[in-house]
Sequence to fold (83 residues):
Amino acid sequence: MIAHPYLNKLQIPAEMVTASGSGLDPNISPQGALIQVKRVAQERKIAEEKIKALVEAHCNRPLIMGPETVNVLELNIALNELK
Fold:
């Protein structure tokens, strides 16, 4: 079963296929979160726009240097609170 049949390989951030699946790092990139919006919206029966807004609201921007991240646990809690 393909989870994201609407994406082509070039749209998938490398971290989504190369990062550890151990769950030790609770963060993913905003791009990694955004490519999942459509599937999450379908599964949760929530408008894609609402989920995109939550992803944007949960982007952790560094004070000086470093990549933006999204804390997956915090985002999932916010998604659960929408219901």
Remarks:
- The CA atoms of residues 69 and 80 lie 20 Å apart.
- The chain has five helices and three strands.
- Residues 27-81 form one domain.
- Residues 48-57 form the longest helix (10 residues).
